[in-house]
Amino acid sequence: MFMTTLILSHDCYVVVIDQHDLHSEGTSGEQPRHIDYENTYKLEPEATFNPERVESIIGTVLKENLEGQTYQRHLMGNRCLLLSDIIKERVKKLNLPRFKIVCVVLIGENKKQTVMISSRSLWNQSCDNFASCEYSKGNIYAVGMVFAVYQE
User: Fold this and answer.
1) How many CB atoms are closer than 10 A to CB 52?
2) Which residues are CB-contacts of 128 (< 8 A; sequence separation ≥ 6)?
3) What are the mean pLDDT values of the chain's consecutive 10-residue runs (152 residues total)?
4) N or C, which terminus of the chain has less Cβ within 10 Å?
5) How far apart are CA 141 and CA 108, in angstroms?
6) Whole-angstrom Cα distance, residue 85 to residue 81?
């Protein structure tokens, strides 16, 4: 077995392992190389999560998709899934490497009631963050929340 280590930069190593058996017979071509990537052990993110930018994305998506809509209970479950997917894709375009993005959208009927929404999570306060935005018009209200958790 032959092993070569290539150093590409100060934080990324590539190990190329050539497992070509010299004693095998009947093989005319080269065997494909197997590449193992070493861990980078980055403990701090390269980019930070900006809650203000994400709040504007959430507000824009909620307004674009719920403006002029009325609450229809049988349609809102699928609408929540659709809106959370749209928000998540737009947040991913901000190019936050190594962040896991979790998006939750809640839609309800506005009957002048009080609603409290809470969430709990275990995270690192120095690099994990969240953003939320509310939308309310007519008989419909919506809350969009995005959580960004850094993956070491």
Assistant:
1) 7
2) 49, 121, 147, 148, 149, 150
3) 42 43 52 78 84 97 94 93 96 92 95 87 90 94 95 81
4) N
5) 5
6) 6
